[in-house]
TrEMBL record:
This is RING-type E3 ubiquitin transferase. Keywords: Metal-binding, Repeat, Zinc, Zinc-finger. It is an enzyme of class 2 (transferase). It catalyses: S-ubiquitinyl-[E2 ubiquitin-conjugating enzyme]-L-cysteine + [acceptor protein]-L-lysine = [E2 ubiquitin-conjugating enzyme]-L-cysteine + N(6)-ubiquitinyl-[acceptor protein]-L-lysine. It comes from Branchiostoma floridae. Residues 17-57 form the RING-type domain. The keyword Zinc-finger applies. The lineage of its organism: Eukaryota, Metazoa, Chordata, Cephalochordata, Leptocardii. It comes from the Eukaryota.
Length: 321
């Protein structure tokens, strides 16, 4: 009986994810040889931090790329998204293309960010919609004309499905998709003596639904995400903060503020949420990633390379420290 019980325990452990402690859902193999759920690995990839395998305690890192124009190399990689199938799509702005990798960092394919004919977009950001297609935002630069902004929908192989024009501003912009309402959310900064940022909500055909954020003093909103409840989260590079709105565009709160202390930000860029609703922000000039609890106060502080650490303030931080 003892042997049978031990065998059953061993079998259960062999089919259980060491991160979520549930039975495997689409298991993926780590570099060390152990497996975790694909969704759990996606959360870790989106965080962009090192972590230790819970089974062998070996540090795990998914690192790929390098500067250049060759296959698997980048020039100004600005945006990233992950599909349900576990493919990583990177907006390689300087090379005017989207590159696709596995969750382990193996190159799969690439396609040019064509708008029409020979015209190619310089992609600022990329997002996945509810049907598994990609939305890419960026601009075209002509030899004799001013640049023009576009939002383009591609399938996963790079075929253009639809597109619509965006106002030319000269500032970087981000894109996210509210899959529940099938709205395309795009950030925009108006270049004037007094910078004004906003979020534009479109239908896939390019029809403007509403504009969000004009009353809260946004300056340079770039990256944007939508959480599972439909809340809109925008990182403002010049205000050094994150703005949060509900699914109807009503302002909820802002957090962050300029500085190096925990919970502060310096020119935040990329932003996403994990399955638990935690908010993960790329804190650019502080050279770190900060994780905020979905309710903002009281959470844990994460040091670089550690998956669990100690209670210390209101953010989880991973960086060069």
């Amino acid at each position: 009986m003892a042997a049978t019980s031990s065998l059953g325990t061993h079998f259960k452990e062999s089919v259980t994810c060491s991160i979520c402690l549930e039975l495997f859902t689409r298991p993926k193999v780590l570099p060390c040889g152990h497996s975790v759920c694909q969704d759990c690995l996606q959360d870790l990839v989106r965080m962009g931090v090192d972590f230790k395998c819970a089974n062998c305690r070996q540090p795990q890192r998914v690192t790929f790329g390098g500067e250049g124009s060759g296959t698997g190399q980048f020039r100004d990689p600005f945006g990233v998204t992950v599909s349900d199938e576990g493919e990583i799509f990177v907006a390689d702005r300087g090379n005017q293309r989207i590159q696709v990798f596995t969750l382990q960092g193996t190159f799969v394919r690439q396609f040019p960010t064509v708008v029409s004919g020979e015209e190619k977009l310089k992609p600022d950001d990329v997002a996945m919609d509810g049907e598994g297609n990609l939305w890419v935002v960026g601009d075209l630069w002509g030899m004799d004309t001013d640049f023009v902004g576009f939002a383009v929908q591609y399938n996963k192989q790079g075929t253009v499905l639809r597109k619509f024009d965006l106002q030319a501003t000269g500032w970087g912009r981000g894109v996210a998709v509210d899959t529940r309402r099938n709205h395309i959310l795009i950030t925009q900064t108006k270049d004037s003596s007094n910078l004004q940022g906003e979020v534009l909500l479109f239908r896939p055909d390019g029809t403007l639904v509403r504009t969000v954020g004009q009353q809260q003093g946004m300056k340079y909103p770039w990256y944007i995400t939508v959480d599972r409840e439909g809340n809109i989260l925008v990182s403002d590079c010049l205000n050094n903060c994150v703005f949060v709105y509900n699914e109807d565009g009503q302002f909820l709160l802002r957090f962050g503020g300029h500085g190096r202390d925990e919970g502060q930000l310096k020119h935040p860029r990329g932003i996403c949420t994990d399955r638990a609703g935690n908010i993960i922000v790329a804190d650019w000039l502080n050279c770190r990633v900060e994780m905020f609890d979905r309710k903002i106060p009281e959470t844990h502080h994460y040091r670089h390379g550690e998956a669990m650490c100690y209670c210390h303030g209101n953010t989880r931080t991973a960086g060069s420290g």
